[in-house]
């Protein structure tokens, strides 16, 4: 199949949204690694605009990308007989950055969290903390709330993505006919009428109503059952519909309706949380708003994918650059935000100035980091890139007029 440039743009912009969201986490009243002295609920309605769906969207796009990559690996396997080509390549691409991130990139986040929030503070310096981090020290506690070390923090997405990739590879390896048949039935159900909205909304609403009260999100993999139900399901959905043109066209047809439902449900959720911030809501209303959350989650995704498909963006040098850069930027961004935010406190800048400055500096430093990483081959695999830059290799062996293939 031709490369889906609309999905490339969705993936790039969804990861960029994560940077904005994590800058916002510094200024809201929700628990985060460090908190602004000016933290308030003012920004929370805008944070809620993407909270229900931003990670689900990434898992759906990742599921579709997995389908395309697995198809390429199968074609290669028919030539050389290697059945582990796909799983080995994906494990290298995901697990090496995850391990490096947990050992090197993430520890500063935990260090500044301890410095900022540990009763009495922490005064032994970063290297001493890093040694205790690597030794899995569990004594950094505030009452019964103890910091679990080592940790993957924002890199939990990478760990979950690898687990889901292994699961779908096993299904494709040992039950290919059942997987294909289920995918075909799903695509038929979603392509007809309002199925593209009805069935997924019902699933995500039911999942939240049934599970969120029993299994709060933890991002710890082993006990995160609500997240597994929603994220693995949407990963499988992306895998199943990757080549189902009827489903993508259904998203285009229903994009305006999905947009209206998304924004209406967002307003309802915001009103609910604002009104019941300090008051216990009736149980019936609580369940209804959990269902509204599921509606919001799926309608936002349909609207985004439908408009992206309708606009049909083409390939461009900017897209190829961003596609290669976005994973290293994602790995780096949260640590950079924490460092910048903590050390900007003595300046006592107003949030309306400090927040945009943090966004600009975070993107600037992340892309500067990528520019350094991509030029040093030993660093490239640590950030999810191939050891050698395919673009440079191709440029050295082809004419300047030939287009560059984006790194997959």
TrEMBL record:
GO molecular function ontology, one term from the record: acyltransferase activity, transferring groups other than amino-acyl groups
Transmembrane parts of this sequence: 12-33, 53-71, 92-112, 154-172, 193-213, 225-244, 256-275, 295-312, 324-344, 356-373
Keywords: Acyltransferase, Membrane, Transferase, Transmembrane, Transmembrane helix
Domain of life assignment: Bacteria
Ranges of residues in domain Acyltransferase: 5-370
InterPro entries linked: Acyl_transf_3_dom (IPR002656), Glucan_succinyl_AcylTrfase (IPR050623)
Identification of the protein by name: Acyltransferase family protein
């Amino acid at each position: 199949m031709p490369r889906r440039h609309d999905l490339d743009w969705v993936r790039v912009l969804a990861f960029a949204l994560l940077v904005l969201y994590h800058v916002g986490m510094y200024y809201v009243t929700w628990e985060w690694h460090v908190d602004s002295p000016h933290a308030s609920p003012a920004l929370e309605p805008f944070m809620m605009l993407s909270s229900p769906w931003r990670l689900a969207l990434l898992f759906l796009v990742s599921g579709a990308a997995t389908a395309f990559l697995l198809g390429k690996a199968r074609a290669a396997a028919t030539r050389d007989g290697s059945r582990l080509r796909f799983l080995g390549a994906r494990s290298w691409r995901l697990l090496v950055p995850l391990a490096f991130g947990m050992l090197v990139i993430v520890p500063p986040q935990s260090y500044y969290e301890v410095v900022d929030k540990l009763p009495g503070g922490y005064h032994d310096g970063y290297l001493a903390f890093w040694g205790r981090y690597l030794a899995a020290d569990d004594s950094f506690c505030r009452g019964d709330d103890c910091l679990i070390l080592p940790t993957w923090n924002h890199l939990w997405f990478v760990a979950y993505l690898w687990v889901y990739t292994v699961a779908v590879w096993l299904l494709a390896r040992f039950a290919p006919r059942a997987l294909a048949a289920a995918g075909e039935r799903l695509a038929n159900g979603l392509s007809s009428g309002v199925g593209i909205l009805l069935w997924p909304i019902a699933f995500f609403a039911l999942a939240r109503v049934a599970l969120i009260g029993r299994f709060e999100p933890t991002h710890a993999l082993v006990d995160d059952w609500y997240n597994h139900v929603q994220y693995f399901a949407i990963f499988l959905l992306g895998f199943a519909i990757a080549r189902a043109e009827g489903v993508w066209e259904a998203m285009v047809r229903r994009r305006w309706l999905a947009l209206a439902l998304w924004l209406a449900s967002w307003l309802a959720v915001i009103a609910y949380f604002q009104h019941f911030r300090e008051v216990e809501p009736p149980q019936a209303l609580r369940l209804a708003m959990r269902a509204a959350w599921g509606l919001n989650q799926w309608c936002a995704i349909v609207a985004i994918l439908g408009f992206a498909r309708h606009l049909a963006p083409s390939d461009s040098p900017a897209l190829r650059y961003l596609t290669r850069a976005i994973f290293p930027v994602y790995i780096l961004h949260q640590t950079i935000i924490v460092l910048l935010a903590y050390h900007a406190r003595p300046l006592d800048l107003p949030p309306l100035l400090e927040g945009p400055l943090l966004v600009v500096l975070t993107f600037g430093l992340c892309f500067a980091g990528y520019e350094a990483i991509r030029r040093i081959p030993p660093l490239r695999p640590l950030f999810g890139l191939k050891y050698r830059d395919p673009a440079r290799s191709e440029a050295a062996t082809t004419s300047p007029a030939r287009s560059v293939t984006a790194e997959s």
